[in-house]
Amino acid sequence: MELLTLLFILLLSLGAGLLVQWLPMRHQPMPTYPQRAPFLGGGTPDSHAWSRYHVRYYPMTLLLIAFEMEMMFMYPWAVVFVETGMKAMMEMGMFLAILSVGIVYAWREGVFKWQ
Amino acid sequence: MAVSWLRKLASRTQVPVFPVLGKQGDRALRYLALSPEIELVDSPRHASVLLIAGEVPADRFEPLRRVHDQLPYPFTTLWFRSEPWPHLENVPRVEKLDELPGALITAHRELMAGQRDSAPRILTDKPPNPWKGEGDFGQGGEGMMGGVPYGRPMAMNMQDDIRDGLTLDSLTFRLGPFFSAFPPGMMAEITLQGDLVQTWSTQLAPYPQSLDPVFFTARERPVPIAELELARARHHLHRLFQALRLAGLENASLDALRLAQNLSTSSTLGGLRRRLVRSGFFRLSSMEGGVLDPEQARQIGGPAARAAGLDDDLRLEDAGYRRLRFSPACQTHGNTRARWQQTLNEIDQSLHLAQQAERDEVYTSEVDRIETPRGPWSEQGPEDASPLLDEVLPGLEWGEALATVASLDVAAVVNEGGGTQTPDELRVVQGGSGNVFK
Known about the structure:
The complex is a heterodimer. Chain A is mostly helical. Chain A has a domain at 58-108. Chain A contains four helices and no strands. Chain A is flat, with a radius of gyration of 27 Å. Chain B has three domains: 2-112, Rossmann fold; 156-204, no CATH class; 213-430, Cytochrome-c3 Hydrogenase, chain B (Orthogonal Bundle), CATH 1.10.645.10. Chain B is globular.
């Protein structure tokens, strides 16, 4: 019964959304091809703008994930550290050392230099 | 009921106008920028009125047709000091600058109230290439990258990357001549790889620009230096207005324009300069590009040359300026930032010179060789330098490239002064109220 109510609400909101979009558009023709062309100040494109290009911040985002993973493991580790002591400390040291190799490598590759 | 209420509401808003600039149309643009009821938009998609300001040469009719058809329904056109195309019926034409905002508002209100029909579409409703139903899935061609979906081919990698060798798809297109970030009338064919300008070829030179009439008078007889220097500062402030608009600093750009309009010998630049420093205009990363070598700087001349460290200035040869102990200030880096710092310093210097010259009533002495705000004018006036952009811009990121274009005054200067303005208009557009010698 609850599912049915939810489905009903979903259909109702979807219908209302479509209706609001359809009402003002119902007497208007589709925009013409010249109107749909990209605006280039009167110029014309040779091809579509769906092109593959290099997102320059991409390596930086990968690195952010590396840092984030590190933080994620440090929260449970903080709990274990209280019980285990120095052993946990050394394990965390090894983990951070391995991660920082990645960071040093990225640094050498110029990831931190904004392009 | 609801629709008529909506229409009333729409007709009371600011009038969204897309300006298409013809020859000498930039004056109308500056006038409208200060009209509170008019909103100048950067794309025809946001406009309901297309304003054709100034005469558009016949070789730019085809691009104008394309821009005309890109306005959303309903829209109307208004022709300011240019001949409407004969096949457009009942098209209003305006001659006087002070009537222009009123005409735009009337056109917009009538359009919104349904008293005026939308302008007809000029181009036929056809895709650039036929594609519907072609290919296995009706996508317009064979294979993954073949064919012309929606009428245009897909982007393919055709050129090696010049930044770091990572070759991806390049995008070639022609931009202009009605693109607001370019000098009026300029058109270029550009290839981008991502945000990097791979190639740039200027295809249509910008319209020759008209200078303040005082520069043409100075070619005939000695003129008061105060008047000449105020006109110079005004020219630079108008260019600064365009650059600040491009940088998204709308309010600062209007400040620059208001300063230009009310410029007098008692004006100071301090407030505007502080505002620009605080807004971070000089710290924009796109200001690093566009470095000119000495040869390129000499070709453009004027402030661009002095920003690259050349101390060429014809004012040094003038006895009047020597009396005022004029010496040109220069920058060294020759990039976009240096050019704007140079421009601001020159406005400041011009205001000081004007102040001194007004006090001592100093006149120019040279008539054959004068320094215009665009560059030196001896035997020939400053000529079009837009082909130089083809050398300077490749390798820059898109933002840097646009900032560089805005910082370089490349348009030629028309050989006759005055144009079609009446003296009244000169006062309105250029704000000669502080002009003590008139």
